[in-house]
Amino acid sequence: MGKNVNRAKNPVKSALTTLRIVEALKDREGARVTDLAQDLDLPKSSVHNYLSTLEQEEYVVKCDNRYYVGLKFLDIGTEARNRLSIHDIAKPEMQSLAEQTGELSNLLVEEHGKGVYIHREVGEDAVQVDATTGQRVHLHNTGLGKAILAHLPPERVEEILDRHGMPATTENTITDPENLFDELAEIRDRGVAFDREERLNGLRCVAAPILDQEDEVVGAVSVSGPRSRMSTERFREDIPTLLRNAVNIIELNIAYR
Question: IclR-ED domain: from which residue to which, for each copy (predicted)?
Fold first, then answer.
């Protein structure tokens, strides 16, 4: 698939380089100047100048000749999340879901064709997974993402798939657009989406979309857990019922907040 990206007419090269460096620091969980220069194919002196400027402005920190993303980004990220009222509205029901199931409850929204985790609640039996607040993921291989895609216009779904593709992360990932559209129709009919180890081996998920008064999808909430506890009736009936009830309350609070 080709990429259909909304590109800036006159992108600022230095801004793009700064962002590449910050993202590389995040992905590497810290790095030395030499490593970044090699990874990004940039002169070592240029990378050092960028990092020195970012350190001066308190966006990165230096420790033992390694640079790390600074906590100032946390303040910016929190502000970005707080502009989404769905975070505060959904939080009480997510806490209830985590308590009732003992599993992990997640809240995801779509931005630029990717899913972004903006909140999670941890039940007493919840397993640790790689999904963290702020993490961006593909939409086609998660229950949350499929719940959102199912309620977007078909042309928007095609645009997202064209831009980001459908990479396989497990042998269960749906990688054929026609198969995905068939499943999205089923999700609209039953009201919930299932992730059958499509993003992570051993992890299953049930998700439900959150719609506003205009029936536009504003996010999705899920319960996820290990295959051993997410099977049979609990996976197909019990947790979906809990999710539908929670989403009903969330949607009412959105409508009448």
Answer: 72-256
Model confidence pLDDT, tens digit, residues 144-184: 999 999 999 999 999 999 999 999 999 999 999 999 999 99
Q: Do 50 and 166 fall into the same domain? A: no
Structural domain includes residue 127:
yes
- Identify whether residues 236 and 119 lie together within a single domain: yes
Per the structure, the complete domain to which residue 144 belongs is given by: 81-256
pTM metric for this prediction: 0.78
Q: What is the pLDDT of residues 14-54, one digit of tens each?
A: 888 998 999 899 888 889 999 999 999 999 999 999 999 99
Neighbour-count burial for 231-243, b at 16+ CB within 10 Å, e otherwise: eeebbeeebbebb
In a domain, 76, yes or no: no
Question: Per DSSP, what are the bridge partners of residue 68?
Answer: 61
